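Handoff note, outgoing to incoming analyst
You'll be picking up this chain. Sequence as last confirmed:
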Amino acid sequence: MKKYWAIFVLLLSVTLSAKAQYTEISGVSKTETPNNVRLFKVVQGRIEEIASTTPDAKGAFNFKFQPEYKGYYAIGFGDKYEIQDKYKIYAKGDDKINLKLNDSTYVLNGENTKENLLLYQWYKLAYKVERRSVYFSRSGRRMQGFFPELQNLVDQSQNWIVGKETGNAEFDQLLKSTIDYDLAYFTTAFMISPRASKPNPNDYTAYVKNFNAEQYLQTEELLRFPYGTTLLRSLVAFKTQDYYNSGWEKQLHGISSDVLKGELVLSKMATVKSYTNYQELYDAYKKYFLTIDQKERVKKIEAGLQKYKPGAAAVNFTCWDVTDKEVSLSDFKGKIVLVDVWATWCGPCNKEIPYLKKLEEEFHGKDVVFMGVSVDEPKDKEKWKKFLITNQLEGVQVFAGGWHQSTIAKSYNINGIPRFMLFDKNGNIINVDAPRPSDPKLKETLDRLLSGL
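Most recent structure output, in case you need it:
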């Protein structure tokens, strides 16, 4: 009996020892502005923070953690919503990583694993192309010479990877995939970056001419990378040539993996402002939410939008008219209210003005209030008053006293304008992200509401 007990204790200790394998990261942060250093794990192609630390007076920092999986993690600055300024590291447990972080790069020094040494070699080789593509807005937005540089990196990578082995077969295969997906990431990031003019197809090199976005959309492999969902959107944008305006069927076409389809829909769903828009997406594409992670994220999005559900009581807000008289949303109970959140400097807002005026004329004398809410900064209040006169804006015009500090922006999570919202005669929500006046659906909705349907 004692013999069997000893064997059990030995097996238990071996099991516990095997589980308790930690990765230790030691480093120095040398940046112009002090920043917390953050460690992230990769979850379905996006990053989630594991830990954060403030470097000491000399910039030194340290992390010790037990990896949930063998694969890529990310370390760097900023929150999980921004993939820039994060660097891939490979962790498997029972390993050490030593590095120095700067404002625009990282350097390995001291004791490091074979995996991270090879990964760093690839990082250095790809650095210039990555800076010109992923960090396009910071690199002067130059297009000239990018495609030859990219082609040169493609050619170099094919020779560089030959014979690169660490003794870790799983990582060695991952590194080959990393090169392939990194190159796709650099290419699509550059091609879809906003700029005054589009790249000239005559400048394309062989790699770009033959680039096939759909080959990366067949499996979930891209979700192993910190930039996975960003690359997913970039690939779709490259494929459709118009990510924001192309229909869902066009965007989903060519994606073989239902999990990837779910991730694409979720990336859009995370940006919706109204429960109505969320419900439309959910009803149409819920069949693609397959993983536990996806289902949990859907529930979280729904919970956050519950307060904006049609029929929910509106959150009242108070602003000031041109005479500094207080005007509140609740003042207009008994009428349908269309709220237009805008600013004088907002180009898309100004484009809606002619359509809004036409709508006001068509519904003049009916139980509809058109309420324009300016989120111009307090210093621009006189500019707002002049704008009203110059553009002959009528209806109820009020000043919120700034964007981020205003009650309306905080209450309705307004992070982009123009934003149109509809409220019913009882002061309840109809839609807090209503169609714009340029969209015929808005007039159809108002007609339907007034007819009592």
